[in-house]
Amino acid sequence: MWNGFLINLQFFTVFPIRRQLPMEKDYLNKAVQTFPLLGILLGVIYAAVLYALLEWTPFSPLAAAFIIWLLTIISTGGLHLDGWIDASDAYFSYRDIQKRLEIMKDPRTGAFGVLSVIVLLSCRMFFLYEIVENIKPWSYILIVMMPFLGKSAMGLMLTKVLLAKNEGLAYFFQEAAGKTSTNLYPVYLLLPGLVFLSTNLTIFYLYMALLAVFILFLLFLKRKIVSWFGGITGDVVGASVEGVELILWMTIWLLHYFVTA
């Protein structure tokens, strides 16, 4: 399990894991099992850095939001953003599925990819700024939960959605990890709810709202990805993670308005 988690750190983050890790089937299975734990780690880092910036530095809410915005990009090395750009180029070509798959393999970046990543990152910055401007004690908990759910989405997409082609990163992970590697995910997803239910009802309701949005959007993606791309590829999974996390940031932003009101 530990080696699987280290594989995630090495592969999906910029944390310096200078160690030769085994990439056999059992270890990749454990890697997929620990995707949500990777998300928890990232969420704790985001929330802790934000708290430190707001409580222990003279930085304005705008400066703090901008630093966290940068951290969300730097911490993953822009890996999922690359998938977002490639998938956007393919989707907005409005071509057939085979042509879209060819466009995603093209290393060149098109205008639609550039525009879509600008929109994505601009929206994230906007949501972050307004969240930080109206920060509440429970905001930090939801920020921890955001990448936790985002990385859970990555595991579920990799194991539960059809492959678009029998090659590439998605094929490698799905074949190595198997479809049962996410059997622990319901426990992961429900455990925070049980903890919040026994400690703080407000946070419990907020988390359940976030979880409901996560599930509904994931079901939407699962259906649409097959019709848009014929199934998943590594780029499509990366784009899905970015899409899920953007929707979750938007949900946290909206919750600040409705709960505060």
Automatic annotation (TrEMBL):
<keyword id="KW-0472">Membrane</keyword>
<dbReference type="GO" id="GO:0051073">
    <property type="term" value="F:adenosylcobinamide-GDP ribazoletransferase activity"/>
</dbReference>
<feature type="transmembrane region" description="Helical">
    <location>
        <begin position="138"/>
        <end position="159"/>
    </location>
</feature>
<feature type="transmembrane region" description="Helical">
    <location>
        <begin position="109"/>
        <end position="132"/>
    </location>
</feature>
<comment type="pathway">
    <text>Cofactor biosynthesis; adenosylcobalamin biosynthesis; adenosylcobalamin from cob(II)yrinate a,c-diamide: step 7/7.</text>
</comment>
<dbReference type="Pfam" id="PF02654">
    <property type="entry name" value="CobS"/>
</dbReference>
<comment type="similarity">
    <text>Belongs to the CobS family.</text>
</comment>
<keyword id="KW-0460">Magnesium</keyword>
<keyword id="KW-0169">Cobalamin biosynthesis</keyword>
<keyword id="KW-0812">Transmembrane</keyword>
<dbReference type="GO" id="GO:0009236">
    <property type="term" value="P:cobalamin biosynthetic process"/>
</dbReference>
<keyword id="KW-0808">Transferase</keyword>
<feature type="transmembrane region" description="Helical">
    <location>
        <begin position="35"/>
        <end position="54"/>
    </location>
</feature>
<keyword id="KW-1133">Transmembrane helix</keyword>
<keyword id="KW-1003">Cell membrane</keyword>
<feature type="transmembrane region" description="Helical">
    <location>
        <begin position="203"/>
        <end position="221"/>
    </location>
</feature>
<dbReference type="InterPro" id="IPR003805">
    <property type="entry name" value="CobS"/>
</dbReference>
<dbReference type="GO" id="GO:0008818">
    <property type="term" value="F:cobalamin 5'-phosphate synthase activity"/>
</dbReference>
<dbReference type="GO" id="GO:0005886">
    <property type="term" value="C:plasma membrane"/>
</dbReference>
<comment type="function">
    <text>Joins adenosylcobinamide-GDP and alpha-ribazole to generate adenosylcobalamin (Ado-cobalamin). Also synthesizes adenosylcobalamin 5'-phosphate from adenosylcobinamide-GDP and alpha-ribazole 5'-phosphate.</text>
</comment>
<protein>
    <recommendedName>
        <fullName>Adenosylcobinamide-GDP ribazoletransferase</fullName>
        <ecNumber>2.7.8.26</ecNumber>
    </recommendedName>
</protein>
<feature type="transmembrane region" description="Helical">
    <location>
        <begin position="66"/>
        <end position="85"/>
    </location>
</feature>
